[in-house]
Each structure stands twice: as structure tokens, then as C-alpha cells.
Design goal:
Length: 151
């Protein structure tokens, strides 16, 4: 398989501003350390501040910062590109070269099985958290009813 060149965008949201700057630098270093890809170009936006309503305090806002980096990366092969996507979860990927890819059945199988394994894992986590939430609500309701004064 031939090299693949792609533009990717990685976004980070959080607080404080120093944290998102440091995290983006760590992400960039991790990408740079991987032998399966090479950064050709990198451009990071200045962090921007945003406010969101506080989930439990109606009069308060939560301040967060966001930044993104656009990378042009040369990937060793298709597997390197898909592994990059799983590892760094970019918000966007645009393959620049080659304009047509010839992908073998094994590469497609590997990618699909990786996607399915991750989906099953996420589904399991969601089910576990849903069951935990339900149990917490049951315990809270029981405690609330037990603490009610009887007349």
C-alpha cells in the first residue's frame, strides 16, 4: 500500500486555557513520535473562550476554551491512517493523495472489526452506566421515602 497524505483537524475543549494549550502540544508530540506518520504542516488556532449554561445553576455560566490544530500528515499506509483516527479522534479527515485508493479485503476487514469492537465496548459502558444510574435513583428514592415523617 502506498503512502497517504491527509489533512486532519484535532479539536480540544476545556479549562483553564493553559491546560488546552499543554494538551494540544502533547497531542502534537505524540503524533510526531509515531513512526507510521510524519507531520508535513501544522497550524494551531489561538484559543477562544466560550460560555455555556451551568447544568444545575441557572444563573451561572461555565467558561471553557477551545483550540484546534490542522495537520497535514503523511501516513505510511491505510492502516496507519485508520489507527491515527482511532487514537486521536480527529474531527475531520480529508485525503489529499492519492486520489484513488486500492484497499485489500484484509485492510477493510481490520478496519471494520476495529470499529465494531469499539462500538461494542462503548455500548457496554453505556449499558453499565445506565444500570448504575437506575440503581442510584432507586436507592435515592428509597432513602427519600424512608426519611419522610410518618403521620
Amino acid at each position: 500500500m502506498e503512502k497517504i497524505i491527509a489533512n486532519t483537524i484535532i479539536e480540544i475543549v476545556g479549562a483553564p486555557i493553559e491546560h488546552i494549550k499543554e494538551t494540544m502540544e502533547k497531542v502534537s508530540n505524540l503524533i510526531n513520535e509515531n513512526k507510521n506518520y510524519e507531520i508535513i504542516k501544522k497550524e494551531t488556532s489561538d484559543p477562544k473562550e466560550s460560555e455555556f449554561p451551568h447544568p444545575s445553576k441557572k444563573d451561572e455560566k461555565i467558561k471553557v476554551f477551545s483550540t484546534f490544530t490542522e495537520f497535514e500528515i503523511s501516513f505510511k499506509d491505510y492502516d496507519a491512517l485508520t489507527n491515527f483516527c482511532f487514537e486521536f479522534m480527529p474531527s475531520s479527515v480529508e485525503v489529499l493523495e492519492p486520489m484513488e485508493l486500492k484497499i485489500g479485503a484484509q485492510e477493510v476487514n481490520n478496519t471494520l472489526n476495529d470499529i465494531l469492537a469499539r462500538l461494542h465496548h462503548q455500548s457496554k459502558i453505556i449499558m453499565e452506566y445506565s444500570a448504575l444510574k437506575k440503581r442510584i435513583q432507586q436507592v435515592a428514592a428509597k432513602r427519600a421515602s424512608e426519611s419522610q415523617p410518618t403521620s
